[in-house]
Amino acid sequence: MILTGPEIVREREEGRLVLEPFDKEHIQPNSYNLTLGPTLALYTGGVLDTREENPHTTVDIPEDGYVLQPDRIYLGSSLEVLGSAHHVPIIRSRSGAARLGLFLHVTADLIDIGSIGQSTFQMHAVQPVRVHAGDRLAQVTFWRVQGEITLYDGKYQGSRGPQPSQIHRDVTQAAR
Amino acid sequence: MILTGPEIVREREEGRLVLEPFDKEHIQPNSYNLTLGPTLALYTGGVLDTREENPHTTVDIPEDGYVLQPDRIYLGSSLEVLGSAHHVPIIRSRSGAARLGLFLHVTADLIDIGSIGQSTFQMHAVQPVRVHAGDRLAQVTFWRVQGEITLYDGKYQGSRGPQPSQIHRDVTQAAR
Amino acid sequence: MILTGPEIVREREEGRLVLEPFDKEHIQPNSYNLTLGPTLALYTGGVLDTREENPHTTVDIPEDGYVLQPDRIYLGSSLEVLGSAHHVPIIRSRSGAARLGLFLHVTADLIDIGSIGQSTFQMHAVQPVRVHAGDRLAQVTFWRVQGEITLYDGKYQGSRGPQPSQIHRDVTQAAR
């Protein structure tokens, strides 16, 4: 079951989910709108690799916005800190952003139960799109669970700002 | 919880969800197939902008189909009018379309509860793909909600045909 | 409702879902990690068509990996056989893969209830990415259903390895 907007508000008031800062204008019938934070991360190398650390740099979005180019993956993040130890958050685009050809994730939309932080957006533009810090580009939904809960205790816990991939650590850890 | 195919049929018969026209051949184990309508919308400008109105044009899909090019976002729509005041619809590709590299949405797949209309598809082709009006490219699932329901009353209500982004109205409204 | 990690384990032990081979290291708070199998499929023609059979070839991923190029759709598959006659599986990227700009599906992420097999990944890279057989790129979640269950009995049942699109058979079947 997906929580309705009023239920998201109620569960937040009871301390069962985190959405900070909270603005009641962001409440939707079944979701809560998320805002683009001020920083983007980009990889600087040529071919990326799932088994190597991939160097990256960060850029601050200028006052008049930043044009995302189609041939690159950009990592952004929500201004909001969000998460829940009771429900599973799932991220998606708002339709207004998606109708401009702007992907907000690259099929990793689920946030583990117990993971609290600023959410990393995996941003990809089909055509060049100018975005602005503070744009309400994304939304988060919350889903009820069935079964015993084991809280997330992984490598992205407590994230602030966009977090590059750590998938190469799968190999490093396996090699230990 | 996601409604099974037979439950979608039952809920529709009880007037708790809309799927028109309805064809029982479209029922799947957990979803209902949606058909591509006859019109596509494309943006005509260069760089798109989340804070500007982005000019667009529409094209009718010819009898022998229309080739979607990889460097563009196309907005299509379902032939079917759909929605529900009780369940949350979520749109996705059928696997046959996706296995040709055809995205049917750009991560905005959730339809607000209470929104009834033809659904706008956010279409993006990884390689050139010829599509045809009447192709069964998409499917809709329906999800149960938890909590008090506030029905959608937004800018895309009652949509017919593909609807371009209205995200720039966020700024206009905030500036009032 | 989405099953928690411990509930996925419990349901598997009761024979209500299939995940083979099973490795408890793959259990996540709300999902189970899936591994990339050794073979990829690619289309060999120019313009793909929803109403034609689209020729394809397969490649084996070399020992030192295979670089996915941005202008192509690749079909991969899970090493794991998975499915359920009781719950609906949904596939997505792990965040580590997505943060490299690697799509694991092209908006067809839902597996019909009753469909058991190796899952076909619809892979698309925003920038060139080297992948390796055995990479844990994806994850599967399981969702409770509401309503009477009709098991999947379609054209991709019992899949082994990546399965190209069969959407052109829609037309052939309608023409019968």
CATH class of chain A: Mainly Beta
Uncertain stretches of chain A: none
- The CATH level-2 architecture of chain A is identified as Distorted Sandwich
CATH topology of chain A: Deoxyuridine 5'-Triphosphate Nucleotidohydrolase, Chain A
Task: Tell me the radius of gyration of chain A.
Answer: 17 Å
Binned, the helix content of chain A reads 10-25%
Sketch the topology of chain A as an H/E string, one letter per element.
EHEEEEEEEEHEEEEEH
Structural class of chain A: mainly beta
User: What best-fitting shape of chain A do the alpha-carbon axes yield?
Assistant: globular
What is the percentage of strand-forming residues of chain A? 25-35%
Query: How far apart lie the N and C ends of chain A?
Result: 40 Å
Question: What can you see in these coordinates?
Answer:
Three copies of one chain form a homotrimer. Chain A has a single domain, classed as Deoxyuridine triphosphatase (dUTPase) (Deoxyuridine 5'-Triphosphate Nucleotidohydrolase, Chain A). The first copy, chain A, is built from three helices and 14 strands. The model of chain A has no long low-confidence stretch (mean pLDDT 95). Chain A is mainly beta and 176 residues long. In chain A, the strands form three sheets. In chain A, strands 2, 4, 6, 8, 10 and 11 form a six-stranded antiparallel sheet that branches. Chain A has a three-stranded antiparallel sheet with strand order 3-13-9. The longest helix of chain A has 9 residues, at 5-13. The first copy, chain A, is 11% helix and 35% strand. The first copy, chain A, is globular. In chain A, 50% of the residues are buried. Chains in contact: A-B, A-C, B-C. At the A-B interface, β1, α1, α2, β10 and β12 of A face β5, β11 and β14 of B. β12 of chain A pairs parallel with β5 of chain B, so a sheet runs across the interface.
